[in-house]
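User: Please predict structures.

Assistant: First:
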Amino acid sequence: MLRISFVAALFISSLALVSAPAAARPSDDASANRADGLPDNFHGKVSYFGNHSGELIAARTGDAHKPSRDCVRPGQRCPVRVGGSLQVDLEFDGVVVRGTFRGSGGLRDSGLIGRRQGSQCRLFDLTDGSVWSGQCNREGFVGTVKSVGGAANQLTLSFETVATKTNDYAERARQRLAALQTARRIEFLRSVIASTDSVDDRVLASVELDSYGWTYDRLRPETLTITRRTKLRRGTYQVEVEFDLLGGKKGWAIARIARDIIVCIEFWDYPGKCRAVKLPTPPAVPRDDGPEGEDGEHSSFIMPPPLAIPRAAYGA
């Protein structure tokens, strides 16, 4: 009896070990939500476009003096179908969300404010307090709208939109800083080349400056090293330089010097061809004009001017 109980205990333990990894494995849906979601500290703006559909019960459907024959409810409060296009712009400041929306087919323009938890947004209409709730992420904004109980106009609708533009303010600031640093570095290297510094310093500055015009195999400036100096003839010699490339490989350059003047430089990708140093154009620095400038050249998508969408007055 004791032996049977021991075997049964071993069998139960093995089942627990087999099922444990499956229980600990996150679901595919959860992984998808993380991939599409916005970071909790995201600071930027997402624009969405799609449609909406639902019903509106206005304070009065017909005219006070000419009641509608189609509506027999007291107070002429009969539901009216609404639906059409919808454009939503949401600005995320961490978990706080602000935005605006505009649509056709009976939906009037207004603003939104609220909070989000992960990819779930709960926003309130600034005009009548209607609740916009649903999933909001970098892929789309999908959910429902429900008026508060005591509102004169009762709106109930569902909406579905897709993201058409994402503007990450932190990424824009990073790009601006990188462009400024590159422009300053180019200016500094040009000043070194034009100075009376040592030939070695001017050779290293020339190779690094030339690399800013390379499309591929960008070098790592901190790895620039002079490896050899070779005398060619009276007053002329060459300086050999090695460096690491961002792709993991190594490159080299050979500078021809005549009377302490850099005549030309030969690079590893075009051996046998000694050419003058290319002077790159400093990159354009993004404008630092805050959220109002998100439709500039640094936006991930340039939106056309707002369309003149015909729409009925809300509650008309």
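Second:
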Amino acid sequence: MADGALNLTLDDYASAKLAEKAKALDMSPEQLAILLLGQQLFDHEDFTWMNGDPRKPLPPFDQNEPTYELEEVLAEFSAELDRRLAAKA
């Protein structure tokens, strides 16, 4: 099983539910099974979180912190992206 291959045999009920839900999500039953197993087996302790544990609550919102209009931020981002792409050319 080193290559990640695994064969599972589901009972009729689980197989039918998996197929029904996969169809509703426009996925194959195999894709949905991989997604669901990944969610169930995921363990936060298996990873190092660069910005801290995502399960911990965020600090309270500081109403005195500056805010920016979306259009202003997008314009600045776009200009910086254009500058970097031009530098690469």
